[in-house]
Amino acid sequence: MEYEKEPYPIEILPQLAYRKNLDVGKLLAKYQNLLVVRMVTGTVQDYIIETEAGEQRLSEKVFANSMVNLSLNLAGGLFDTDSHTHLRFLPSGDDATRPWNGESIPSVLYLTVENYTIYETCFGLCFRVCDIHNRTFPFYKHFNSQEERDEYARNAAGATSDEEQAYDAHFVGVFKGKKQGVEVKPRIKVHHSPTMLNYWHMTLDTYRPTDVNYILPTDKLKSTDKTMFKSLKQDLMQHYEIDQKPDYSIGSCDYQLE
Question: Which residue among 25, 48, 93, 153 is least packed, with the fewest CB closer than 10 Å?
Answer without folding.
Answer: 48
